[in-house]
Amino acid sequence: MRANANTDSGDQARDPLVSVVVAAFNAESWIEETLRSALDQTYRHIEVIVVDDCSSDGTLDKVRHVAMTDQRLRWERLPANTGRPAGPRNRGLALARGEFVAFLDADDLWHPDKIAAQVAALRFDPGRVLAYTVSCAFSSGNGFSRYLSRLPESQPRVLPLPWFAATDAAELRLRNTIVCSSVCARLDVVRAAGGFNEAPELRALEDGDLWLRLAERGSVTFLPRLLTYYRVHAGSTSRDGRLLHTHVLLEKRNLAAFPRSRLRSRLLRRIADGVALAWLLAKDAASVSGRRRRSRGK
User: Fold this and answer.
1) Which residues contact 154 (CB under 8 A, 6 or more apart)?
2) Would you say 265 and 207 are in contact if contact means Cβ atoms under 8 Å apart?
3) What are the C-alpha distances in Å from 55 to residues 26, 110, 247?
4) pTM, entire model
5) Which listed site, 31, 128, 169, 262, has its alpha carbon 20 to 30 Å from 73?
6) Residue-range domains of the chain with CATH
7) For the residues 225-246, what does the mean pLDDT come to?
């Protein structure tokens, strides 16, 4: 594990440490902006751990450059390429020292208040094992659903719509509405659950598999705030052609009967969240459009 020579000042000793795990592979075009969005969080007591899956481009050079400017960043290069993010994420879990762990893909971005909001939701309720936020897809295309892909380019693509947000194991068996980069969870519970399953048949769905196992150990909290920005591009894992096949395998393994009465009740409870999100999207549309323009200009 590499880091710069500085050590933690200990000024935030009263706040729980959050470990941010970044799995990276050939991400030189985005990694620096991604790391800045993590290090610029208003919640300062974090460590950022980059695990590089043997990139063949300049990803590590960018990581080293950022590490020279912030003592909270550490990095490690795996001895061999694993070909999928589960391996680097699990190595990051092994290196993490925090009470909480957040995952950030090497091409995604965070709102500055993301970690602060999630720590506030989790820290005083041990029964809450995971908190996640609304995510917005940006750049060309859309990786969430056919319905959202038909929205005009000026309209932010969001996941989940609040009335469809899964918050327990039964709902997660029906559908995974949790974007990996939107998650903050209790590190001890993630480790107890076994981390990410590296079985080949779960490629691109190992995150949904983990969320389900966490939901079986405690409660899942959904924050109806747009705090995660998901970059969609040709190399995005969610656009892999094998996604449908692996989704079917996961459904066959996990699908259980979902009570229709609970679904109706959940929809009613989400109406208020939907109104709040509509207001939030109107407020944030300009900043999202600005991120798209900057992405296209690179």
Assistant:
1) 285, 289
2) no
3) 5, 23, 27
4) 0.77
5) 128
6) 2-297 (3.90.550.10)
7) 63
